[in-house]
Design a protein that fits this description.
By secondary structure, the protein is of the alpha+beta class. The chain is built from 5 helices and 11 strands, in the order αβββαβββαβββαβαβ. A hairpin with a 3-residue loop joins β2 and β3. 35% of the residues are buried.
């Protein structure tokens, strides 16, 4: 099985584009935003180490730790820490035919795109418009009957493009909007690998677009 380092590199580069990052333990990167602290493992790390880092964070913040290697838990989880498992997927470079009505978001429709993302992922605090000025960031919006219906964003680190927080509002699902955003994102960077973490529901769509599962990530979240 192909290792997930290409996705990890993109995830770390994305985090570093937003905030200063540190290495609080070997193989673990930490970045702190206003409302959430995020950890990303860059090599296999025991779950006990990850949980200790999570519990050391102030209770006033949400904490997420992403282990793309999916190291099994080496004991009972501390109270308040929960796990979620999601596939890490990679698509090799290559052309793809863009489909549907998706367009890169400009500053005028940025609010529409971010609202769709936040509605789809309520735990997300949102994005400042200044993020569009950062290198590598691209937001995408797909409309249905003139209404913002699906959105997501990509981050190009120069080696691959990561696709993140792709959301379709419930009333607009089943109309190919997520596929439109995916194909437009990939078509915009045909010489790059495309990387993402999928939900189990979204995994079949990504497989049809040429993605292969390279690992089953473990996400640690503090309640």
């Amino acid at each position: 099985m192909i290792e997930p380092e290409r996705y990890i590199d993109n995830s770390v580069a994305l985090l570093a584009s937003l905030v200063p990052i540190t290495e609080p333990a070997p193989g673990v990167v930490r970045g702190e935003r206003e409302h959430v602290t995020r950890f990303v493992t860059t090599k296999p790390v025991p779950s006990q180490v990850i949980c200790e880092l999570i519990l050391a964070e102030p209770r006033s913040k949400a904490v997420v730790a992403e282990d793309s290697f999916g190291v099994p838990a080496d004991g009972p989880l501390p109270e308040g820490v929960v796990l979620k498992h999601m596939p890490v997927m990679v698509r090799p470079p290559g052309p793809i035919v863009a489909t549907g009505d998706a367009a890169r978001v400009d500053t005028v429709s940025f609010a529409d795109a971010t609202k769709v993302i936040v509605d789809g992922f309520p735990a997300i605090a949102g994005f400042p418009p200044s993020i569009l000025e950062l290198p590598g960031w691209h937001f995408w919006l797909s409309e249905r009957d003139g209404v913002p219906a699906a959105a997501g964003y990509g981050f190009d680190d120069g080696q691959s493009v990561g696709i993140y927080l792709l959301a379709t509002l419930p009333e607009h699902r089943g109309h190919g909007l997520a596929r439109a955003i995916m194909t437009h994102t990939i078509a915009a960077c045909p010489t790059r690998k495309a990387v993402l973490v999928a939900t189990l529901d979204g995994q079949p769509l990504y497989e049809k677009l040429g993605f292969k599962t390279v690992s089953m990530a473990t996400w640690y979240m503090r309640r």
